[in-house]
């Protein structure tokens, strides 16, 4: 423990020197390209979209990039995305079986990943999500690489108040000593980490998720669009059961609100049964997974009743397209809405959701006005260019910190 405290003190001592060195670097001197290896588990959802965007942007800037991804999830959609990305990845794509929970099979996965790391000798090992980051930080090899962690929520919001949740957060506490850079995607997740795990013993930077210019084009709503659309994985954290209950209450009050639910997941059969039990199955269509913009065209308003989020891409994408949004005040969503966060509602509150949906349908001009204000903010604050450049700048700062620390130890 004394050695850990000494390392933390050393980091504090060299940090000003790193900042000065970065500031003193001539603007005309091209920085050397980096070898960057991203490790994540499931090629699904917002986390996967984030890694694909970041890896593409890093490659476009001349860096040599590779991915290590779970081989058992994602299906044909993930295969297609990775195949399209592969020509741009100088370090390739490695598929390895990774379980969601801690498992004896992690030993085999760690062995394969360690061999890949030793072969590629990256400058940056960037783990995404709890499992990807754990494997990135536990794997031996690449002694000169920095190890970077982006939580994306993960174990920070996993089973709060349970022994299992506490166990995974204890592992997070242990692994923070093996981390050179915490690259949080929102201020919310950074604050949550400090509250649930403790103060990070490494460099901390907040680089928010971002979207590209093409995503600011408006979405043309389909002729058969329903009143609302909900996009996301079909699992309890997304709160779709609360939405179905709200639709049933609205129906009993004399208002029939039609809905499209776009997504797949383990809760699917349960949600279909709930809709049938509450007598609203005839006004809900379950359409399975759909690309975000295609899903947005299926409804006149996005409803996101989540119980927990990190910084959800679906909200960024909808906001960029100017889609009216009813969402809960969870995770980084208030950061996306900014001054308009007062329009967000409490999670797990069916009465609040009923009121918000009803008000939005009664006054579409108001929700459209809010949507345009949020779109302007997203364009200004949540740029994919800023996301990629900010991450690379953080890598370089952490690498400089490591070099200065090595010099300090040598001269000690």
Short description:
With 412 residues, the chain is an alpha/beta fold. 48% of the residues lie in helices and 13% in strands. Strand 6 (181-184), helix 7 and strand 7 form a beta-alpha-beta unit.
- Strand arrangement, major sheet: 3-2-1-4-5-6-7
Beta-strand portion reads 5-15%
| CATH hierarchy, class of the largest domain | Alpha Beta
Say how many strands there are.
Answer: 12
Mean pLDDT: 88
* Alpha carbon gyration radius: 22 Å
Name the CATH homologous superfamily of the largest domain: Glycogen Phosphorylase B
Major sheet attributes: 7 strands, parallel
Which regions are unreliable across 5 or more consecutive residues at pLDDT < 50? 1-28
**Which H/E pattern describes the elements?**
HEHEHEHEHEHEHEEHEHEHEHEHHHH
Helicity, as a percent range: 40-55%
| Alpha-carbon distance between the two ends | 19 Å
Report on the structure:
The protein has 412 residues and is of the alpha/beta class. The chain folds into 2 domains: 2-210 and 383-411, Glycogen Phosphorylase B (Rossmann fold, 3-Layer(aba) Sandwich), CATH 3.40.50.2000; 214-381, Rossmann fold. It is 48% helix and 13% strand. The protein is built from 15 helices and 12 strands. It has helices at 2-24, 45-60, 75-85, 105-120, 129-138, 163-175, 187-196, 240-252, 268-277, 292-296, 313-320, 333-337, 350-362, 364-381, 384-411, and strands at 35-39, 64-70, 92-96, 124-128, 146-150, 181-184, 203-206, 228-231, 259-262, 284-286, 302-304, 325-327. It has a 7-stranded parallel sheet, with helices on both faces. Strands 8-9-10 form a 3-stranded parallel sheet. α8 (240-252) crosses α13 (350-362). The longest helix is centred in the C-terminal third of the chain and has 28 residues, at 384-411. It is globular, with a radius of gyration of 22 Å. The chain starts with a helix and ends with a helix.
């Amino acid at each position: 423990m004394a050695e850990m405290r000494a390392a933390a003190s050393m980091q504090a001592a060299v940090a000003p020197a790193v900042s000065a060195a970065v500031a003193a670097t001539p603007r005309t001197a091209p920085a050397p390209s980096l070898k960057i290896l991203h490790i994540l588990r499931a090629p699904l959802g917002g986390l996967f979209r984030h890694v694909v965007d970041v890896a593409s942007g890093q490659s476009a800037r001349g860096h040599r990039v590779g991915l290590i991804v779970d081989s058992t999830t994602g299906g044909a959609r993930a295969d297609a995305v990775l195949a399209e990305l592969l020509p741009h990845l100088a370090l390739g794509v490695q598929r390895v079986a990774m379980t969601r929970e801690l498992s004896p099979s992690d030993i085999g996965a760690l062995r394969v990943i360690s061999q890949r790391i030793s072969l590629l000798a990256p400058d940056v090992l960037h783990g995404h999500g709890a499992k990807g980051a754990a494997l990135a930080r536990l794997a031996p090899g690449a002694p000169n690489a920095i190890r970077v962690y982006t939580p994306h929520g993960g174990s920070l919001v996993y089973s709060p108040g349970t022994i299992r949740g506490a166990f995974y957060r204890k592992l997070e506490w242990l692994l923070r000593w093996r981390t050179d850079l915490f690259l949080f995607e929102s201020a919310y997740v950074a604050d949550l980490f400090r509250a649930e795990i403790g103060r990070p013993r490494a460099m901390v930077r907040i680089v928010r998720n971002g979207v590209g210019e093409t995503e600011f084009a408006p979405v043309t709503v389909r002729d058969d669009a329903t009143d609302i659309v909900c996009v996301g994985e079909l699992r309890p954290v997304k709160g779709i059961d609360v939405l179905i209950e709200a639709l049933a209450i609205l129906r009993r009050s004399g208002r029939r609100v039609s809905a499209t639910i776009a997504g797949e997941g383990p809760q699917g059969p349960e949600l279909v049964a709930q809709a049938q039990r509450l007598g609203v199955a005839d006004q809900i269509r379950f359409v399975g997974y759909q690309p975000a913009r295609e899903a947005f065209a299926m409804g006149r308003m996005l409803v996101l009743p989540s119980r927990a989020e990190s910084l959800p891409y679906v909200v960024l994408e909808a906001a960029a397209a100017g889609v009216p949004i009813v969402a809960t005040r969870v995770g980084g969503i208030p950061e996306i809405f900014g001054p308009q966060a007062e329009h967000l509602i409490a999670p797990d509150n069916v009465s609040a959701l009923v009121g918000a949906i009803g008000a939005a349908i009664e006054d579409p001009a108001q929700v459209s006005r809010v949507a345009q204000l949020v779109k302007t903010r997203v364009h200004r604050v949540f740029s994919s260019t800023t996301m990629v450049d900010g991450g690379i700048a953080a890598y370089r700062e952490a690498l400089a910190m490591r070099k200065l620390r090595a010099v300090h130890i040598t001269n000690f």
